[in-house]
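Work Package 3 (structural annotation) set out to generate three-dimensional models for the target panel prioritized at the project kickoff. During this period the team completed the workflow that converts sequence records into discrete structure tokens, so that structures can be stored uniformly alongside our sequence database. As a representative example, we reproduce one entry of 428 residues exactly as it appears in the project archive.
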Amino acid sequence: MKKKANEKAGEVSRRDFIKASAAVSLAAMGVGTNRIYAAGSGKIRVGLIGCGGRGNGALSNCLSAGEHIGREMEVVATADWFKDRAVGAGKKHEVPEERCFYGADAYKKLLKTNVDVVCIATSPNFRPVHFEAAVKAGKHVFMEKPVAVDPPGGRRIIEAGELAKQKGLGVVAGTQRRHQRGYRQNAYAIQRGAIGKILGGCVWWCGGALWFRRKSENESDADYLVRNWVSFAGMSGDHIVEQHVHNLDVANWFIGHPPKTALGFGGRARRQTGDQFDFFSIDYDYGDGCRIHSMCRQINGTDGGVREFFAGTEGETWGGGGLKSNKNISIPDFPEHGGPYVQEHVDLLNSIIEGKPLNEARNVAESTLTAIMGRTAAYTGKTIRWSDMMEKEDSPWYNLTLKPTAEDFEKGPVTAPPDDVAPIPGRS
């Protein structure tokens, strides 16, 4: 299959920059203009909400993206549940301590500063609230995946994403495969019929257990949940949502829409804290004869694998390569600066500067909801339909809300679910 030579991205001229900043119609509507354009100096001001390992990583990726597009970047504020994390992240980037916010309302304080772009990397249960607040505050957003832990949260992300479109705000999610050269090339080819109609496939994320922390004697339930968020479904969505969402996102992307139903199973055998499963096996029916088998596992000492495979009427492919097709399709050599984790920020910043902001809110919300659908099917033993979560307000799954919610953390003390008590299919 032929590939075109990579085209070097052109730099935006000062004249184009000023021209794009004059969003008069949006200003007249009262929905705001592009904050990066309004900066005047061209400096891009960044804030970080969620200063853990992935948050600091995302911030580093964002700053690296600025170097690739030739723009000066400045970290102006940090926010986290814990003071030491907020201050620690701030010190790395010379942020004054008075702009290192902590506590349940830290994100609100950060959003009152002059940040242009916000990186949101709190645990998934907080993301619908934090994303919605960032959009209402007129900020461009990079947010980590997944973006919710339950159906109401997923729908909230979609609604806030629509508001972001009205405001002309950029939104990119941490589903970095959508910015990775090999995956983009395969998606391009598939969309042009390279393997025909997709009939089925498999997606995997099988690996070892993640870290966990036991509750200390004087630790509050809120602190314990935030520090040990990967152990509780109400904080992370369970690992099918928090981790396997990457592979499910590829399935939705390549097929072109989310599945219609999910049925499957899972179980808990090895975990020592929290209430999550160790493994899931889900059958997703995408309709029109297309089925995808989803498998994910977090158990030490077992074989791993993180990949996707799809078979079509006229060929087959792995997620990021290995395309087999008899068709002669010319595929562009998509740019990838600094790897996919940096490229996703490059794409966000370039889209904003060019006045054509990307908006990935619906994509990542639907992939998150796909994972939630599979988790719910495994927890309950029931067939879960997409319409149950998105359309049928009388469905028990439409308003399924995991506790404690993000709002509960802001209202006062919360109670952690008991450790080592997991859902039982047929009873939950």
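Residues 1-33 have pLDDT under 50 and may be disordered.
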